[in-house]
Structure formats: structure tokens, C-alpha cells
Automatic annotation (TrEMBL):
The lineage of its organism: Bacteria, Bacillati, Actinomycetota, Actinomycetes, Micrococcales. The keyword DNA-binding applies. Keywords: DNA-binding. Residues 1-70 form the HTH merR-type domain. This is MerR family transcriptional regulator. It comes from Populibacterium corticicola. Coiled coil: none annotated.
Length: 228
């Protein structure tokens, strides 16, 4: 015969856990002694140990309680379902690890591969995130992103960003046109295969991209809105 603290210590759980199992109905409550204390038996301990082992194997508390009580109609059905759930969880975790690895490699934490490729400077991140989302269904997107990360092209884009950053009220129309020509010459040809944004989508990206820019930079973007 055991009290709550004793069976909890033997099973390696807490008294609070045992009370929770009673509340949700997966561990039968033992009869109480005259002094009000619960009086646990070896059978309770075995059930508790089985529940612990089953939940360690990936079963939910409800599934573990059913199997531990021997009332499952088909043990194989339950185990197949648990295995399927675990497989899905592994796939999700694997994808999350891949995204973290990409973020560590690119230095762009929290960005997709495409958003990281589109971010030439920290100021580009909001519009890059939006563009990557709007173009998410384009099958050529990965190829485009890989092209943007090519070292020589990356260096050229950084130079273009530096030129854009110098635009101000004193910049001439000729300078803007030269910048446009230079930009078009370095954008990967694969972008020609990606469908254009709708007018509403372009305006949304433009709204985000224009934040913090001077009038001349905004004028340049309006003539050549950010899109792939």
C-alpha cells in the first residue's frame, strides 16, 4: 500500500502529475483510508509506469491511458497513427532546421531564401519579405534567388545600392536613366519568365519600399517599381 508521495517517487513523477492523471481519467483513483489519504496499490504503479513509457514513445496522454488500461480496440491502429504524427513532426522540424541553416549562412535570420537574396541592405528587408511572399507560387523563384546570390552579381547589386543611396534632389534625370540602364543589365534573365505583379500588389510593395527615402529616390522607384 502506498500514498501519493510514495508512488510518485517510485514512478519518477510528481504528485501533481498523478492528480492530473486522475482528473483526466487515465489513472483510476484508489480508495481512501479513514484518514482521507489515497491508498495506492502495485496495480496503480504499473499503470502509471506504462503511461509514462507510452508517452515517452510519442503517444498522447489519452492514447497512453487507453492502452495502459487495455481498452484499445486496435493497438496497431493507435501505433500507426502515432507513427504518422511523429513522421509529420520530424518533417516540420527538418524544414525548420533547413531554414535556420540558411539564415545562419546568409546572415538573414527569419528570412526565406528568396527574401534574403532580394535584400541588398537592411532597408530592403520589408519589401523583400513582401516580394518573396507575393511571388511564392512562381516555379522559377528558387533559380532566380540562386542567381541573385552569385558573388559577382551580388557585388554588382551592392554597387547599385550605393549609387541609389546617393540619389538626392541634386541628381539629374540622366543619372537616374544611367542607374536604370545599369540595373537592367545585371538582373538575371530568368526574371523575364516570372509573371508580373498586379497593379495593387505593385502599389503595396512600393508603399513599403518608399519608407525613409527622399523625393528623388521615390521618383526613381515610381518609374521603376520594385518587382522581379
Amino acid at each position: 500500500m502506498m500514498r501519493s508521495a510514495e508512488i510518485a517517487e517510485i514512478a519518477g513523477v510528481t504528485v501533481r502529475t498523478i492528480r492530473h492523471y486522475h482528473q483526466i481519467g487515465i489513472l483510476p483513483e484508489p480508495p481512501r483510508l479513514a484518514n482521507g489519504y489515497r491508498n495506492y496499490t502495485a496495480d496503480h504503479l504499473v499503470t502509471l509506469l506504462r503511461i509514462t513509457k507510452l508517452t515517452d514513445s510519442g503517444l498522447s496522454l489519452a492514447q497512453a491511458g487507453t492502452l495502459a488500461a487495455g481498452s484499445a480496440e486496435s493497438i496497431d491502429t493507435v501505433l500507426i497513427e502515432v507513427d504518422r504524427t511523429l513522421k509529420e513532426q520530424i518533417a516540420v522540424l527538418t524544414k525548420q532546421r533547413e531554414l535556420l541553416a540558411q539564415a545562419r549562412t546568409s546572415g538573414h535570420v527569419g528570412l526565406s531564401k528568396v527574401a534574403a537574396a532580394l535584400s541588398v541592405s537592411s532597408a530592403d528587408i520589408p519589401s523583400a519579405v513582401l516580394l518573396a511572399h507575393l511571388y511564392n507560387d512562381a516555379p522559377q523563384l528558387d533559380t532566380f534567388a540562386e542567381a541573385l546570390m552569385e558573388p559577382n552579381l551580388r557585388a554588382a547589386l551592392l554597387q547599385m545600392q550605393e549609387r541609389f543611396d546617393t540619389l538626392d534632389e541634386s541628381s539629374t534625370d540622366e543619372e537616374l536613366e544611367e542607374l536604370t540602364t545599369a540595373l537592367r543589365s545585371i538582373i538575371p534573365k530568368v526574371s523575364d519568365e516570372i509573371p508580373p505583379l498586379t497593379n495593387e500588389q505593385s502599389q503595396l510593395v512600393l508603399e513599403v519600399a518608399e519608407r525613409g527615402l527622399n523625393d528623388r529616390q521615390k521618383e526613381f522607384l515610381r518609374l521603376h517599381p520594385p518587382e522581379l
